[in-house]
Amino acid sequence: NFLSLSLQAKMSRPVQAQRLEGIDKNIWVEFVKLAATYSTVNLGQGFPDFPPPDFLTEAAARALGGENHMLHQYTRAFGHPPLVKVLAQFFSKLLGRDLDPMTNVMVTVGAYQALFCCFQAFVDEGDEVIIIEPFFDCYEPMVKMAGGLPVFVPLRPQAPKDGKLMSSADWQLDPAELASKFSEQTKAIVLNSPNNPLGKVFSRGELQLIADLCVKHDVLCISDEVYEWLVYDGKEHIRIASLRGMWDRTVIIGSAGKTFSVTGWKVGWTVGPNRLLQHLRTVHQNSVYHCATVAQDAVAQGFQRELELYGKPESYFIQFPKELQQKRDWLVQSLDAVGMKPIVPEGTYFLVADISEFKSDVPDVPDSDEPYDSRFAKWMVKNKGLATIPLSSFFCGAHKNNYSHFIRFCFAKEEATLKAASDILQKWKQEKTGP
Ligand code: PMP
User: Where do the Aminotransferase class I/classII large domain residues begin and end (predicted)?
Assistant: First the structure.
């Protein structure tokens, strides 16, 4: 009968490809859901809660409703011509090198897909990829999905100068430890400067150290620079590709989402030598093929404006970090005031803070597999309505418990949102200590 037939027809063989083994959990899926369910104030995931600049939304409206109805159709696979042209012009200026829009630039579906293309294009079964901790969490599963082996090296916190707040600059690589991770099997290193989650902006000396090792061991550098414009206190973002011997072995990754405060548009790019980008194109043409034409067109118009205003006070790339620096300072001050010691970020729109003083209110679970900060962040969103991200999510499994008394805040938020977060913490602090 029908029932026994359909029982027989049921699949019994394993369906999951082996490469998905152990990478099914995703911190964003989990914490975004928690924030949506419980939070009144969300400083968790990294996106602004204020509008993007008018010039960009106007460009999008023109792209969407203007005369050129062809913007609703497919465009060139590796990037809409106006966008790759302006990106090539812009990066030629930044890198002091003549770039060809067709071969040195490729547009991707956010920086996320750019990363995916890199790992798929460069990493073979058994290749090692060095990842500096703490790291944007997707690097690890993406390396594994390509058959590679992630090799981790942590930034180690140094005690701050007397009486000072810790800075993201106090988190440093140990040169000997870094050197010890390079081997015959090393295919690539992932660099993320400015770094999510710490906000560390790598110094020239630190970049030189990495560059020298890459050259010595003939290793590629996947340079995630999505926060390149978000640097504070007059710091300079240095592109590792501009150091001697590095252009030829580096892929620069960028994001319009982070650059123009439009994370939902999912437009990203890669910049690099053709000998590397040609392989990214192979992955791209066999996976997503291209990303939304109208979004690419609007981003192209945004870059055109920024090219014309380059270095001028009206430039968004100057104004936006200025605004963010004020928000950073405000959040640093209000976290410090309640005793949630902030690590002052030199860049990005993230700030990591020490939760040790608030631990007593959040039950400890002895022998739990889950790092303390993860339980803390879940408790806080459920009981206080404030969403953040535990720092341990940015470490590999083996190191998670060593860095489990910090949480990450995103400060690309309206003043009212930051104030509401600060009010929650102040009230909590008062409940603990009495008025
Ligand atoms: N790299 C880093 C370091 C990030 O923080 C993010 C986004 N949080 C991405 C890449 C992905 O960027 P996109 O939204 O453009 O895919």
Answer: 41-421
